[in-house]
Structure formats: structure tokens, C-alpha cells
Amino acid sequence: MSFALFFLGKLKCPLYPTELVFALDSSRTLTPETFELMREIMIAIVSDARIRDSNCPVGARVAVVSYNSVTHHVIRFSEFHNKNKLLNALKNISYQTSSSERDTGGAMRFIVKNVFKRTLQGPNVRKIAVVFSLGPATDASSVKQAVLEMRAVEVVPVVIAFENTPHISQAFLMDDSGLFQVLNVHGRQYNEVLRRFQLCTLCYDKCKPDAFCERPRPRSVRAYVDAAFILDSSQKLSGAEFEQVKDFMGRAVTAFNISSDPETSVVGDRIAVVSHALPDFKAGTGKSPVKKEFDFVTYRSQDRMRRYIKESLQQLNGEAAVSYAIQWTIGNIFSGAPNPRPLKFIIIISAGKTSQWDKKMLKNISLQAKCQGYALLVISLGKSYDRNELEELASTPLEQHLIQLGRIHKPELDYVMRFLKPFIRFLRSENNYPPEELKGNCSGLHFQSQRRLSSHS
């Protein structure tokens, strides 16, 4: 009796249409013995799986990549629709030596961008990436970015580790689904690894989860956030697009633990919303292009915030002034708020280039914000943008703080929503603002007084 059937009875597995990718570690520490063990585990998983043998979306399709400092295809999804031929191909993968380091995060991102790019879509389709790792990842930042991207496109990663992988274990804490796993192989004993992978990932039934898979969810660090949305409310957005952005913002509020007493309590997150692009604004007149929608102490529940966004947030249809809006928000929303939270987060929703007069201040104002410890996440909407402008706005590393959407459609905004939730968990767990590499640029920087700016509320 096969290993999977021993544990799962006569259940045909996977239960859902599944795209299954294996990533083989071919970095410089690879030995012939370890390669054989990786291949043995991979073959054992495929042997006990139901493999799709036609265009009918039943069972799993399998792809294989190999990675060290770069990643390349070994077997593509489209190559085999016959289980025996697939198993023969897996048995024929040859051992290859390499002097390159291990870029586990790069391999995970390659899988998201290149392997899952053209795969079966649908609400019940499962996307699983099994990444073999022979040791610690060389780039912690790359692993974190990979986890954010995998969460956003609903890929479930399982790392089968032959040595400790602290960067990966730490990055997986950003996920709150409980499905991201690191499974450790001890010696040549991998039965427990197979059992947990099959019961809790490949054969996992979200409607009837096996009790064996229950484990405590990683608790988010209790570091609370003051978060301000700065919304580009200019004429660059059509009315229909603006409504989609409003819908996204209403959902984004649910990613936070809103304080029930935002004015006097130090417990819970607080949200503010600021719009810019007032239609009657002219530079140099002393007026402000910014409108305060609500501040950190206006509302004490998600429902009231969402109701305001849905019913009262109106498009301004003027010219964008993102630099001024950042400066005004720091000086009038953050600086005067009682009981400030330890984490300061600005979410900039951009619909295109800012005004020419405003652009002159952008680099200095965004640098000031970053040097004062603000995390700046930029969500760029549409195809009309200035890449240099976006890079000047966003915190670093850019891959974790800049999201560019070519279209303003619900699927793209859903992607941002799935990205945002683990990003906030990451924000709570690592107060790395400003990052070390930026601090040299902050010394001697002249911080302007921002409280004097007035709002056109």
C-alpha cells in the first residue's frame, strides 16, 4: 500500500485542481547523496498523487525548476499528461554540480512570475510550490518579498529543509493562513515530512481539515499602527475607476485592528484618509490642495470608516499634489495626534504623475518622511506614471513598497489586498524604518516645519 493511501484511505488526492511545482536546490552545497534524497521525496509525492492526464481539470499538473543563484525550468506543466512518463522524466533528472550560492527567495519569485504565469484559473484551483532547501537563504529581503508575492497570488509554499532556514521561517510569520510550512528532514527520514505535506497541503480539504494539521497560528506582534491613506483624487481617474478605488479602500481598512478608543487608548490601530487634487487650487495662493476626509480620532470602528468611504468620499477632479499631501499629512494628521502609535505608515494611492510645481518638492519631502521613520507604500494605478517619481516616493526595498497595476480592475485590486495583509504583519514584526542604508542620507537633512500648512477641509 502506498504511503499516501495508508494515511488517506481510498481518497483520491489532490481533491481540487492543482498546479504543483518542485524547486530543486542545486547550489554549491549539493552532494550526490542529497540530490538523490530530494529526487526520492519528489517521486514519492508524485507517485501517490492523482496526476491530470487530460484537459479535464482534475488532479495535479507538475512542473520542476532547479535553482542556485539563478533559476531555470527543468520540466514544464505542458510537457507530461501521463503519470508514468512524468515519473520516468523525474527519475532521469541528472545531478549537476554548481559553485553558485543559494537564492531561495529568487527561486520562489521566479515560480510566481514565470511558472504560474499561465496556469489554470478558478476559485478552487490550488497552486503549490515545494521548495527544497539545503541551508539558509542568502538574501532575507528576497525571501520576504517572495512571501508577499506568493500570498498575493494565492500560492502556497512548502519548504522542505535539510538544514535550518531561519530567514524562511521568519518570513512565513507574515502569513496568517497557517498553510505556509517549513518541513525539516532529519537524516534520510522523511516519512513525517511526506505525511504532513500530503495531509496538510496537497490533500488538504479546507471544508474538512484534518485534526493532524491543526497548529497554533503565528500571532502578530502587538505593535500598533497609525496609518494614513493619501488618495490621488485627480481627474486622471474616471468615475468608474474612482468607485473601484473606494471599494478597495473600504476593504483595506479591514486589514487593521481598529482601536475602539483612538483618542485616549494606546491599544489598536488608527486610520486617517486624506485626498488631494482640489479643483480650484492654484500654486502660490496660500490655499491647500489637500482635503482631510477623517483623522486618527474621528472613528472608532471599521464599519463607520467604511461607511464614510462608501457614502461621503467624493472625487475632487483637480491636479495631483502628492508631495504637498505627504507634508501636510505628517504635519497635521500625525504630528498632532494624541497617543501616537510606534509604527507610522503612509499608503499613497497614485493615479499618475504629480503636478509640475509639486514634483520639485517630491524627492526632499519623501526623504524627510522616510528619515522620520515613516513607511511609505505606493500603489500606482494605470499606465500613466513616472517610474522615477514612484521610486522617489516609495520606501526601500522597492519590491516590498511599490505596487504597479496596469489596470484598475477588481482582480488587480484584489491582488493588492492580499499583498497588504501580510505586509502589515511584516510591518508589526520588524520596525526597520528608516533602514540602515538610508540613515547616512538623513544626517544633516533640514526638516521643515509642517504644522503651519493649512487644510481646505
Overview of the molecule:
This protein has 457 residues and is an alpha/beta fold. The protein has 15 helices and 12 strands. The strands form 2 sheets. The protein has a 6-stranded mixed beta sheet, with helices on both faces. It has a 6-stranded mixed beta sheet with strand order 9-8-7-10-11-12, with helices on both faces. The longest helix has 20 residues, at 410-429. The radius of gyration is 25 Å and the shape is elongated.
What pattern of helices and strands is seen along the backbone? HEHEEHHEHEHEHEHEEHHEHEHHEHH
- Count up the helices: 15
Distance between the termini: 72 Å
The major β-sheet equals: 6 strands, mixed
Helix content: 25-40%
Strand order of the largest sheet: 3-2-1-4-5-6
How large is the radius of gyration?
25 Å
Number-wise, the strands total 12
Q: Which spans of ≥5 residues are poorly predicted at pLDDT below 50?
A: 1-10, 449-457
Helix/strand/pairing category: alpha/beta
What general outline do the C-alpha atoms trace?
elongated
Average predicted confidence as pLDDT: 89
- Percent of residues in β-strands: 15-25%
